[in-house]
Design a protein that fits this description.
Elements: H1 2-13, H2 20-26, H3 32-56, H4 62-85, H5 88-106, H6 123-140, H7 144-154, H8 159-183, H9 189-210, H10 215-241
């Protein structure tokens, strides 16, 4: 069920994966390092499905996607290795901040990313953005869309283009991060497969919802969920620090 909900949000607005790791940790009682690794493994399938769906809709700008992926792949390996060595508290704080930030960014009904900017972002800039996305995604287990979509919208790309590119970059990030997590012994393949099944169905449906539902209403609904989840994580971390 958690995978299904997260997949729906990923496919529809590109930023739903952030709820997966907190849900596994706080509701499933799974150690955060294992939760991050399982989440990254599940994004392999959602990345593939999302890429195929958005390709069929001709929404992916492959000239941009190539540079994003080139920067993201080595960074994803580094991020996964760093996650395996980071303290659980640091990871929880990072995920909480990312969740709140993504929710706040999604709140405006008419974001900058609803513009019509096309290929104005340079290739080196795309490579750097890809590297930031790959490292941050693998480190936090939140998936590439969470980080990439807000950045591209800030650069005034159309929201649908940003979401489509985030799906294309998610697959290589997830593959390389999963390889690194497996080598470090943090991966539970069974959990990853179970999450992938729910995410796959949700992403497939969500990608179609994105092309049919009014964007402002969809964004606001997701934004509220993300802010609530992020605030809950922050409260739990603060309570633990002062317990």
């Amino acid at each position: 069920m958690l995978g299904l909900l997260a997949g729906l949000m990923i496919g529809a607005v590109g930023i739903g994966g952030v709820i997966l790791v907190p849900a596994l940790v706080y509701f499933g009682g799974i150690p955060i390092h294992l939760a991050i690794a399982a989440a990254m493994m599940s994004y392999v399938l959602t990345g593939l499905i999302g890429t195929l769906v958005y390709t069929s809709k001709k929404s992916i700008r492959w000239s941009m996607a190539g540079w994003l992926c080139a920067g993201a792949m080595p960074a994803a390996l580094a991020g996964a290795l760093a996650a395996g060595r980071a303290s659980p508290l640091v990871l929880e704080v990072l995920i909480g901040l990312l969740t709140v930030a993504s929710g706040v960014h999604a709140l405006p009904a008419s974001p900058a990313g609803d513009g019509t900017r096309s290929n104005a972002v340079s290739s080196p800039a795309l490579g750097f953005i890809g590297a930031v996305t790959g490292f941050g995604s693998a480190l936090s287990g939140t998936g590439g869309p969470l980080i990439l979509v807000p950045i591209l919208m800030w650069l005034e790309l159309p929201v649908l283009t940003a979401i489509a590119l985030s799906q294309a970059i998610q697959l290589p990030i997830a593959l390389l991060a999963t390889a690194a997590n497996f080598s470090s012994g943090n991966l539970d393949p069974t959990l990853g497969v179970l999450l992938a099944a729910g995410l796959a169905i949700g992403t497939f449906v969500g990608a179609r919802v994105a092309h049919a539902v009014p964007r402002p209403a969809l964004r606001r609904a997701v934004a509220i969920v993300l802010v609530v989840v992020g605030a809950s994580i922050a409260i739990k971390v603060i309570a633990r620090l002062f317990a």
